[in-house]
Structures are given as structure tokens and as C-alpha cells.
Amino acid sequence: MRSFTKSNLFWPVLGLVLLLLLNLTKTPDFFSIRVQDGHLYGSLIDILRNSAPTLLIALGMTLVIATRGIDLSVGAVAAISGAVACTYMAGSPDESTAGRAIVAMTMAVAVAVLLGVWNGFLVSVLGIQPIIATLVLMTAGRGLAMLITDGQITTVNNSLFSKVSTGFVLGLPIAILIALAVFAITAVLTRRTALGMLIEAVGINPEASRLAGVRARTITWIVYVFVAFCAGIAGLMIASNTNAADANAAGLFIELDAILAVVIGGTSLAGGRFSLTGTLIGAMFIQTLATTIPTMGIPAETNYLFKAVVVIVVCLLQSPKARAVLAVRRPTPLLTKGSAA
Questions:
Q1: Where are the alpha helices (DSSP H) in 67-97?
Q2: Which end of the chain, N or C, is less packed with Cβ atoms under 10 Å?
């Protein structure tokens, strides 16, 4: 227990538990889960399903931040992904068929991966600062999504596409299963192979890792492609939730939620060691916070204010100086007679 309280996961878990208990005091049946038509419903299920897009992007963002990078374009990539899928289906005479939905979603994810290749090229090959390189696509990406949708909200009518966000398998929402599957695959690849160690090595000291034989450029390129892949899937979830592509609103500020989830989970923005479990808890915390605010009767518009407070608290908890001030110094035990020897 003492080791857990000293770990980076203690404060995120404590904050998540407190938020859940706060909801329970306001809504007595908050923890109740009911079965209807073989599907699971309840507030906790809603939190899990709604946090799936943020979790997906946060997983990729964790690896990017571990390499001392950042990707501000994931929201725009998500918007482009949804725009490509919906525009392709809406422009087809057979938009309601399953085959059309599969082709549309494949095209959308492929476009997202290409955008990740572009970001990785700017950062790893040209050596542009990540915040500048991804800011370019963050700005231009929305315009590209608007160009794809012709500036209109593109609606579609496809049952298979709708199931990406609202469908169920084995009683659980498909969005949750997709996010957990990506989480499991990422955990296996980074913790059961050398990939995770190489990512951390690049983040700790890129020059030393290069001299040690690590292909830092390739590793950096891979993580930017992966976060774009995750953003592409998240964009499909967002679009399928409303059966429409909204280039202006889709994925808006989700990059900030993803970064916040990573930081709350204990991954340092300075790069190096990362925690996928912490990112999962961080994504859950953000969605629970978004659910708690209207539950407590507070206007939903103040959500960003509370997130700003969370950012300040997290930064203080990660600051060595703040920890030194808040640390409780234990009294030095008195030496007993003869113990000096």
C-alpha cells in the first residue's frame, strides 16, 4: 500500500474514485447497470463508451510524448477521417450497404495514416519542432475537412457505420471493445517487446540512443503514424455517433483532452518513461469529470474551466519543488545508547 501511494497512479486513481463517489451522492443509482435486450446500460457504461475516442488518441499521444514530441493535429485528423468516410458513402447510390461502409472506413483510416506519415516526415526527417510541425496540420486540417464536405454537415444512412459507436457485441458497446483492443495490442507491443524500451530511450536522450544503434528517426516516425491511426479510428467513432461529418465540431479540442489524459496518467511531457495504464485512468477521469459537471447542476460550458484547474494541479504534483514543499518530513529517530557503535 505504501508503494502504491508513492506511485504516479495514486493521485489519478484517487481523483477518479472521488469523482465517482461524488456522482453517487447526487445520483444514488449511478453505479447500477441494467441489461436490456441483451445489452448493458448505465452511467458507467456511458462513461466508458464516451471516453473511447479520447482513450484511443491518448494511447498514441502517450508514445509521441514519450519521445519528447507532441501532436496537436489529432483533432483535425479525426475530423478528416469522418469527413472522408461520410462523403464517400453519401456520394454513392448504395450508401446503406455494408460493403460501402467497409470501403469508406478503410479509406478514412488510410488517409489518417498518410497524414501521420506527413507529420513524422516533418519531425523525424526535416527536424522541425513537433509543436510547429503538427500545428501546421492542425490549422490546415480543418480547412481540408471543410473542403472534403464542401462546407456542409454530411449525413449518412448506414447501419454498419452507425454500429461503430452505438452497436453492441456480447452486451458491450463496440466502441469500448475497439478501444480496449487497441490498448491491449499497444501494451503487448510496448511491454512485451523491445519497442517500448526503444521509445523510452529516444525520449530520454535521442543523441545517446542514436549512438547506441537505435534508429531514433524510425521510432519517431512510427509513433506519429500510430497516433494518426488512432485519431482516424476515433474520427469514425465520432462521426458514426451522429451519422454525420461536421468538419467544424468533430474532434474539437480532443487533442487537449488526450494530452491531459496522458499527463494525468503520470507520463512526463519531458519524455522518457510512460504509462499506458495511467493514460487509461486519465481518459476515464476526463470523461467522468465531463459527466460530473452537469450532474452537479453546473453549466456544461464550465467544463474547460475545471480542466484548467486539473492541469494546474497535475503540474504542481509533477513539480519537484512543489513536492518538496508538500512533503511531510519524518522526524529523525533518536539513537539509543550504544547504537552509535
A1: 74-90
A2: C
Per-residue confidence at 6, pLDDT binned at 50, 70, 90? Answer: low
Whether residue 320 lies inside any domain: the answer is no
Is 55:324 a contact under the CB 8 Å cutoff? no
- Residue 222 in contact with residue 147, Cβ under 8 Å? no
Contacts of 80 (CB under 8 A, 6+ apart): 108, 111, 112, 115, 141, 144, 145, 148, 235
- Asked, for residue 181, whether it belongs to a domain, the answer is yes
Spell out the residues 6+ positions from residue 168 whose beta carbon is closer than 8 angstroms to its own. Answer: 38, 39, 40, 174
Residue 76 lies in a domain: yes
pLDDT beyond 60 at 336: no
Question: How many distinct structural domains can be found in the chain?
Answer: 1
Torsion of CA 233, 180, 242, 247, to 10 degrees: -30
Q: Environment class of residue 334 by beta-carbon count within 10 Å: exposed (0-12), middle (13-18) or buried (19+)?
A: exposed
Note the pLDDT tens digit of each residue in 130-150: 999 999 999 999 999 999 998
| Confidence (pTM) | 0.89
CA 297 to chain centre: 27
- Could you give the CA distance from residue 144 to residue 78 in angstroms, rounded to a whole number? 12
Q: What residues make up the domain containing 71? A: 2-296
- How far is it, in rounded angstroms, from Cα 237 to Cα 165? 5
Helices first, then strands: H and E counts in the chain: 16, 6
Pairing outcome for strands 39-42 and 33-36:
antiparallel
**305 HSE (CA, 13 A, CB side):** 6
CATH code: domain of residue 110: 1.10.3470
